[in-house]
Amino acid sequence: MSFKFINKIGMLLVISILVLTSCVSGGKRPEMTTKRVPLPLVKSALQIIHSQRHNTGGFSTLWVSPDCSNLVTISDYSQAIDANLDQPVRRSGWYQAKLHFDREDRVSHLTFSDHGQLKDRDAATLQGAVESMAWDEKGFLVSFDDSGIIYRYQKPKSITGLAIASSLNSIPTIAYDQSDLGRGNLGLESITLLHDGDLLALWETESDGVSAKGRLLKTDGSQLNLTYVAGASPGGATTLKDGSLLVLEKRWLGATKGQRLRLVRVNPNDISKTMQQQEISGEVLLDQTSIEYDNNEGIGSCVRDGKEWIFVITDDNGDWTRANVEDKGYSRQRTLLLQFSLAELSSKL
Fold this sequence. Notes:
This protein is mainly β. It has 2 domains: 1-30; 31-346, Tachylectin-2, Chain A. It has 3 helices and 22 strands. The chain has helices spanning 3-25, 53-56, 342-346, and strands spanning 32-36, 44-50, 59-64, 70-75, 93-101, 107-117, 130-135, 139-144, 147-154, 173-176, 188-193, 199-203, 212-217, 223-228, 233-239, 245-252, 259-266, 278-280, 283-290, 295-304, 307-315, 335-341. Strands 1-2-22-21-20 form a 5-stranded antiparallel β-sheet. The chain has a 5-stranded mixed β-sheet with strand order 11-12-13-14-18, with no helix packed on it. The chain has a 4-stranded antiparallel β-sheet with strand order 3-4-5-6, with no helix packed on it. The chain is globular. 40% of the residues are buried.
């Protein structure tokens, strides 16, 4: 047998292994790259560059693994119908990426490793409206901006470690069935799992300075309504290592002012577990408006080498047509991943 023939056999085996690996992990690796970009008051930020915009889309939610090694994000496209889009889109796509850090523990780049598409309960592709997610060891909890219902994408028993993102390939069940507290486009924007297993849900607000409606979904099945004293509209929430909450607030103030970004820390002891219609508030760690910021949608937190980090991801509003953007002289929004040190934020109080 010639060396050339053996070499061909070896190449065929390698190709076969790669194909099988691709099939198992959900298909071809997403074609996205990242580059560092400067932003006001942000020491570390990446722009995620989509090689094919319609195959990825704007990201509406974020989950970061507790050790800061990986992230998972989901695209929603706000349920826009195909006829209103400039091009077909890959709806409800989820994406997993590995985070790479420099010597100062700032993210240098991402490596996207796996992806899929969320399914609805009838096994059809979910049409959109995903806004927030959390992990409760049984799987991913996912909320929507047009319904109070929260889905659970169950973790298969055989899945461990970094493969947990593939739980999002499962057929969902209803984890929490609750009435919708919003009206019109005021949807359920934020969920976060508290250390005792209860789930906090917050709806968005129509304007700044208006308290947001919320609900505590308890492990015993009971539900307690509450109000959150917001400076801007809640867009996401994460639970920190000490049990406190960090709420991401946002407001688009127009093409000349840009996006308002607020990070508010809430003491968990301020959340009563028995009183209906309670009011909660927190300390403002960051309140900044800049044209350099974009539509902040998702937030996650993690601990690396003893330091706690906060990550915020933006939606580039890819379902806006040319008539609403370029034809009006506006620039397209970007998909950004912002990184904050909790210690640096807290030191400014």
